[in-house]
From TrEMBL:
InterPro entries, alphabetized: Cro/C1-type_HTH, Lambda_DNA-bd_dom_sf
Taxonomic lineage: Bacteria, Bacillati, Bacillota, Bacilli, Bacillales
Position of the signal peptide: none
Protein name as catalogued: HTH cro/C1-type domain-containing protein
Gene3D superfamilies: lambda repressor-like DNA-binding domains, MazG-like
Species per Swiss-Prot/TrEMBL record: Oceanobacillus kimchii
């Protein structure tokens, strides 16, 4: 895995700017990014860099550089999760327990976000997906159908952002 500073240097080079210019444009202190290999940056700073370059947080911190991870798409990963669950007989287990597990993972996600812990945030989102794949199977659904139905429901939804939250048009007062 590359260092976060090397990843940002690469992104800056691709865009033809210096790290100093990036720091200035994002309102970071001079030399702040060079300290990130020793002192983990806050999530909002990494998000700012990712948004600036229009890349994922993975690209900034270097998590996307794992060749094994790159070779697996979501369909293949979902199949692997389903097989993993089946091998452990989780597909036949009590969905109530899986729902409690989802709550546990959600709590870890909230903690990771609140504390700005990128690793915990990433892990929690992934864990929640795993739990949802298993839960959907326990209930006789496929995660793909659940996602498709959810998208069909929201695709034409209108509303507006209020304090950083999208509010459906019918909920606007």
């Amino acid at each position: 895995m590359n260092s976060i500073v090397n990843n940002i240097k690469f992104l800056c080079t691709k865009l033809g700017i210096s790290i100093a210019k990036l720091e200035k444009e994002l309102g970071f202190g001079r030399g702040a990014i060079y300290k990130w290999d020793k002192n983990s940056p806050s999530l909002d700073k990494v998000q700012g860099v990712a948004m600036y370059f229009d890349v994922s947080i993975h690209d900034v911190v270097g998590w996307g550089n794992n060749k094994n991870a790159e070779s697996m798409n979501l369909d293949k990963l979902t199949s692997e999760i389903e097989q993993w669950a089946k091998d452990r007989k989780l597909d036949k287990a009590d969905p109530t327990k899986q729902t409690l597990k989802l709550g546990e993972e959600y709590g870890e996600l909230c903690q990771g976000l609140a504390k700005g812990h990128l690793d915990q945030t990433l892990d929690s989102i992934g864990d929640m997906y795993v739990v949802l794949v298993i839960l959907s199977r326990q209930l006789g659904f496929s995660i793909e159908d659940c996602i498709k139905d959810a998208y069909e429901e929201i695709k034409d939804r209108k509303g507006k952002m209020i304090n950083g939250v999208f509010v459906k048009e019918e909920d606007l007062v």
